[in-house]
Amino acid sequence: MHRLTREGARRIAVRAQLLTADRPGGIVEAVDGLSLVNIDPTAAVAPSADHILWSRIGWPYQAADLMRVTEDDRAVFEWAGFYRPMADLPLFRPLMRAWPPYRQHREWLAANDRFRRDVLARLRSEGPLRTGQIPDTSQVAWKSTGWTNNRNVTQMLEFLVLRGEVAISGRDGKERVWDVAERVYPADTVELSAEEAGRLRAERRLGYLGLARAKAPRQPVEPLDVGTAGEEAVVEGVPGSWRVDPTLLHPPDPFQPRTALLSPFDRLVSDRARAQELFDFEYVVEMYKPAAQRRWGYFALPILHGDRLIGKLDAAADRKAGVFRVSAIHHDEPFTAEVAAAVEREVQDLAAWLGLEVTGIPGS
Asked: Which pLDDT value is given to residue 329?
């Protein structure tokens, strides 16, 4: 049983997320260390994958480099809403083989088996293709109360990616380009049992979280819990037990703090309960709320300083006007002059990376 201070627990979490001054050397190293990088099209500041990687790598990162390692080098692949290291593909093959877990999906695929075979044949003969280049030959339309209703080609492609029959070959702007999986994924992938793959996924998850609960509320795609991975720990002042990655308990180098502006979809804050327990940080993405109900802003960025989450930056990139517009900086704790200066530098750096001029609070 490891006994951790809250400061020690926070530093383990920050190290695991590559958010110290010891930055990763490039995209592949960053994606491998993070294990997964969220893909969300919302670009109030920048697309989430670009923002997450910039916050780790810094100035050398460019979106074109992510496309290169994904489309040309095949060192990274896209699956279930995240970029992942291709080396982790064997961990997800059993999930692909077992998909779909839901009756509605199984029945729709069975009713559209000819459509499925049509899509695969078209990709095999003409791929890679964009969605609009694939005809809808469905026998039964996809029914939904949401935006996917009757989007039969998109749904079939999504399902076939989750099944491992189709893969995302790349992107044309924001639009995904599809191909048969055997032309995207390596042929010599190791085959693992479902049990072994599940164990290794839990170990990887603990590796990028550093500290996690054995059990956590169910998530739609990526779990937050790690089962028996790692070793048991307790955190001073926090009820219950945790699992900790033992490789992070005694790092070879002292903790090197820095300041970072995080994406709302950053994995450091994706577990809201953990963020509250370890960092005293309350947070929710408010873009889905009516404007009058927002406390911190449409797309507020969590502010990390050292091992503390100290506030939120309410800002947006106005690309037409050429400005990075800062509406507010919400302080979760008082900023010293040194902290305020560090946050201002990060705001200026983020704006410069976006090719914009800061307008608003910093420097005013």
From this structure: 96
